[in-house]
UniProtKB/TrEMBL annotation:
InterPro entries: Gln_synt_N_sf, Gln_synth/guanido_kin_cat_dom, Gln_synth_cat_dom. Keywords: Ligase. One of its GO terms (biological process) is glutamine biosynthetic process. Residues 123-458 form the GS catalytic domain. It comes from the Bacteria. It comes from Yoonia rosea. Its cofactor is Mg(2+). The keyword Cell inner membrane does not apply. Pfam families: Gln-synt_C (PF00120). SUPFAM superfamilies: Glutamine synthetase, N-terminal domain, Glutamine synthetase/guanido kinase. The keyword Transferase does not apply. This is L-glutamine synthetase. One of its GO terms (molecular function) is glutamine synthetase activity. Belongs to the glutamine synthetase family.
Length: 458
């Protein structure tokens, strides 16, 4: 590619990139996609080989793997032909790779079939499909996620428990120090690196706090377009891991990495605006809640139960929901400013009225979980589903308990005819079979607890 062409596609990059690169020559370009897990896969190439209209190919079989990398035989005709899918860069996502040894760019790609249609099982395609359904009604969803994660010592042996790293004082940070600035300062170098990497990529951070667990951090992102925000979450998970490794610690997004510490969630605040007016359709002119807000809530109560594998995708996900209590409500009740309910309405001005989904785990694929949550609210509005009465007290037991295991959640998902049709049966069938295989693989595992307590005692 000529120098002129390089300059043309560089024009689409952010000011943050040029500030980061300081005019240096771009060496490499990473063309990436989120897989079902939500991690990045793709190809890297010299910048001289890249152009914005480039088309690359990856085999569709990358979606046939479990989180452990095993391939799954599924009910898919000619599955192992391993047909190619086409990748097309979305240049609006292009940004720096600050942790790279050379000056590099990363860009998220959309995935297509050979006939030009979107790949129905690609996570980004699923979210775009849901957003298109909103657009047909003249609506635009707006979301804001909260990202929780743990900093840990490097865990080199999976049989060893997860340990809290030592902070600047030379001591491990204690748990239950939520909102403690002292606890945040303990990991100042890691936090500073996260901020630096985020700034160099143009990733905005709203706030950062110490959460309830020892070494547990929460980053809140600015509200915005669901696809754009999901891209940010995708980038942030990679960024946080790299920032941690730069400082000789691990960052984990497991839902429940430590037995006696709170789990990690991705709470998602959701509202919907009218495309023409920009007004929040959840609030009437007099500031009261609208029918659409009630129905969005009712749809969330009705359908979230059926799509829990999309928001709590692993066996470990349900340890957070079944053990943590207040920090992870295991119900679908709703209430205003009540953190014991799975669906919370934060206090806000009418123009900011929103519903917070508190059941999503941080181990989710952000595109899939956000799409599923918005789909539930959408079907509620379309079908005019009334919610249950608002919870007025703490909710520790409910008539709407969430599934207690991945296997139980998959049973609900299998029978979710309406929402599977909405999200796409091809995607749902593939996703279900992957999760069944992962659950079966886990059931074959013998845990340290079993060896410790059963080996010589039974």
């Amino acid at each position: 590619m000529s120098s002129a062409n390089i300059a043309n596609w560089q024009d689409s990059l952010s000011e943050e990139f040029f500030s980061y690169s300081k005019g240096a020559k771009i060496d490499g370009v990473e063309c990436i996609i989120p897989d079902l897990v939500g991690t990045s896969r793709g190809k890297t190439m010299p910048a001289t080989k890249f152009r914005p209209d480039i088309e690359m190919a990856l085999p569709i079989s990358l979606f046939y793997q479990t989180v452990s990398g095993d391939y799954v035989d599924m009910d898919i005709e000619n599955q192992w032909l391993e047909k190619d899918t086409i990748l097309r860069p979305d240049m609006s996502t292009a940004c720096a790779v600050p942790w790279a040894d050379d000056v590099s760019v990363q860009v998220i790609c959309d995935m297509f079939n050979r006939d030009g249609t979107p790949l129905s099982v690609a996570p980004r395609s699923i979210l775009k499909k849901v957003m298109a359904a909103y657009a047909e009604k003249g609506w635009k969803p707006v979301i804001a996620p909260e990202l929780e994660f743990y900093l840990t010592t490097p865990n080199l042996d999976p049989n060893d428990p997860i340990e809290t790293p030592v902070g600047r004082t030379g001591r491990k940070v204690p748990s239950r120090q939520v909102y403690s600035m002292v606890a945040v300062d303990e990991y100042g170098p890691v936090i500073d690196t996260i901020y630096a990497y985020a700034e160099q990529q143009g990733l905005p951070i709203d706030t950062l706090i110490q959460e309830g667990g020892a070494g547990q951090i929460e980053i809140n992102l600015m509200h915005g377009d669901p696809l754009h925000v999901a891209d940010q979450v995708f980038y942030f998970k990679r960024t946080i891991r790299e920032a941690a490794l730069k400082n000789n610690v691990f960052a984990t997004f497991m839902a429940k990495p430590k037995r006696d510490e709170p789990g990690s969630a991705m709470h998602v605040h959701q509202s919907v605006v009218d495309i023409q007016t920009g007004k929040n359709i959840f609030s009437a002119e007099d500031g009261s809640a609208t029918d659409l807000f009630r129905w969005f809530t009712g749809g969330s109560q009705t359908y979230l139960m059926q799509v829990m594998p999309l928001m709590a995708p692993y066996v470990n996900s349900f340890r957070r929901l079944t053990v943590d209590g207040q920090s992870a409500p295991a119900n679908l009740e709703w209430a205003t400013d009540n953190r014991t309910t799975g669906l919370r309405v934060p206090h806000s001005r009418p123009e900011s009225r929103r519903l917070e989904n508190r059941v999503i785990g941080m181990d989710c694929n952000p595109y899939i979980a956000i799409a599923a949550s918005l789909a539930c609210g959408y079907l509620g509005m379309i079908n005019k589903i009334e919610p249950r009465e608002e919870a007025t007290k703490e909710v520790w037991e409910s008539d709407l308990p969430l599934p207690s295991s991945l296997r139980e959640a998959l049973d609900y998902f299998e029978d979710a005819t309406e929402i599977r049709s909405f999200l796409g049966e091809d995607f749902c069938r593939l996703y279900e079979q992957i999760k069944v295989a992962e659950n079966e693989e886990y059931q074959r595992e013998i845990s340290p607890w079993e060896r410790r307590h059963l080996l010589l005692n039974v």
